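Sequence, please.
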């Protein structure tokens, strides 16, 4: 990476926790850190405790190590590793000595970003080497190539796209009581637990909508357990978009050595038309520039939005560490590396024989077994209402969308708001026929929402 360019003089456009009830102090240069150290129930945790981990630590395996989880989540690096993280004029060197001889064993370190300079530490009588296999792509937003958010967006997107971004945010802020908050350095424990409960529900609804089972939900208790102290230590942050007091977008990031690892994001699907994920990324970009971070790692997963937002595509690598003085250790590492190298070829055959379609059918079947009672979202059609018809329903029952019994209406109403923007609080919603017909009356339009079978 290039040297981070100097100060960023744009105005702050979001709230920190200090502006919403907490206090946050911002750090200067990142210190040299030494190595150390998603669904069973939707029942909320006690707001006064973090709770206990039921999913367990996903990295408690001595023979296989997830590098990103070690580095970002646990502030550790693999044994016998030395890493240099480019941090401007003062590169940061991290290392983890392990004096335990490898003997005839070997181990695997996977998901190693190739933009980090890593090497294996060897000692006389305790030597170690590695075999490296390039794997899948990762996506990085290198902030050192541009001076601020506007510069970054100009470099990555055309004028019309940037205009569309502004439209999404303006409409969201016009229609709802929107505020932005970055929790970094301090957060009330009750609010922290509430945000994790909300994030769990957001992810569950989103994957129910996609009709797939989300394995990450099984790890939510683990992330809840480790993230609170990370926030207090300024080693993690949670960015939230609120509609009033209701979280509608939550983004969890782990922070280390001027790197932001964008780890987990969830949004309320009722607000889908407003493209909350895009607004979330812009706010994270603004904050990262303001705090002097050098890059945002969007991690693995080849999705279109990552290709559009990143300006550096890197490779994750798998490392097979062995003892060069042991033939058995070397052969085991070599065999593992050969198998890993053949996986991409296997995927090509997988698709050639249309086995990926079979896999999708299996996933759909698993979803039905996992969520047998899950129903489709409220099916409806929207009909423009005439002025005469509107007069006929003046005596109809007025309803409040905050009432949970009408939660199924939020998606259709918010979709209409996006196309016909005006403040939601100035609109009236009437129930014409119980659970089947509703009137949405604004200052400029009237629409009838009718349930369809």
């Amino acid at each position: 990476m290039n040297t981070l360019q100097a100060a960023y003089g744009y105005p702050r456009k979001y709230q920190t926790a200090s502006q919403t009830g907490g206090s946050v102090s911002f750090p200067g240069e990142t210190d040299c850190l030494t190595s150390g150290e998603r669904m069973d129930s939707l029942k909320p945790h006690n707001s006064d405790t973090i709770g206990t981990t039921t999913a367990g630590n996903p990295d408690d395996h001595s023979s296989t190590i997830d590098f990103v989880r070690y580095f970002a989540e646990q502030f550790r690096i693999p044994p016998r590793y030395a890493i240099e993280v480019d941090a401007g004029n003062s590169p940061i060197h991290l290392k983890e000595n392990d004096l335990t001889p490898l003997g005839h064993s070997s181990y695997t370190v996977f998901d190693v970003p190739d933009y980090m300079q890593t090497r294996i530490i060897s000692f006389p009588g305790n030597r170690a080497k590695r075999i490296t296999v390039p794997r899948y792509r990762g996506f990085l937003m290198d902030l050192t190539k541009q001076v601020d958010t506007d510069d970054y967006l100009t470099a990555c997107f055309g004028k019309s796209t940037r205009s569309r971004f502004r439209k999404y945010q303006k409409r969201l802020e016009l229609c709802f009581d929107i505020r932005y908050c970055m929790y970094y350095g301090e957060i009330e424990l009750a609010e922290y637990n509430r945000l994790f409960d909300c994030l769990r529900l957001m992810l569950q609804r989103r994957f129910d909508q996609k009709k797939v089972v989300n394995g990450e939900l099984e790890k939510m208790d683990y992330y809840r357990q480790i993230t609170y102290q990370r926030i207090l230590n300024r080693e993690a942050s949670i960015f939230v978009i609120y509609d009033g007091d209701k979280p509608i977008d939550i983004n969890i990031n782990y922070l280390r050595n001027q790197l932001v690892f964008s780890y987990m994001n969830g949004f309320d699907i009722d607000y889908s038309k407003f493209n909350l994920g895009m607004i979330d990324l812009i706010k994270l970009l603004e904050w990262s520039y303001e705090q002097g971070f050098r890059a945002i790692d969007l991690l693995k997963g080849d999705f279109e939005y990552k290709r559009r937002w990143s300006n550096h595509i890197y490779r994750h690598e798998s490392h097979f560490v062995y003892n060069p003085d042991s033939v058995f250790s070397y052969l085991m590492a070599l065999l593992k590396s050969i198998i890993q190298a053949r996986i991409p070829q296997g995927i090509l055959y997988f698709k050639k024989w249309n086995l990926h379609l079979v896999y999708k059918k299996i996933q759909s079947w698993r979803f039905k077994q996992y969520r047998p009672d899950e129903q489709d979202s409220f099916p409806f059609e929207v009909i423009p209402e005439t002025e005469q018809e509107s007069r006929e329903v003046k005596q109809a029952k007025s309803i409040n969308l905050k009432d949970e019994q009408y939660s199924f209406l939020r998606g259709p109403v918010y979709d209409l708001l996006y196309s016909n923007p005006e403040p939601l609080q100035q609109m009236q919603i009437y129930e014409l026929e119980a659970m089947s017909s509703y009137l949405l009356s604004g200052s400029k339009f009237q629409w009838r929402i009718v349930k369809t079978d």
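The chain has two domains: 15-352, 380-451.
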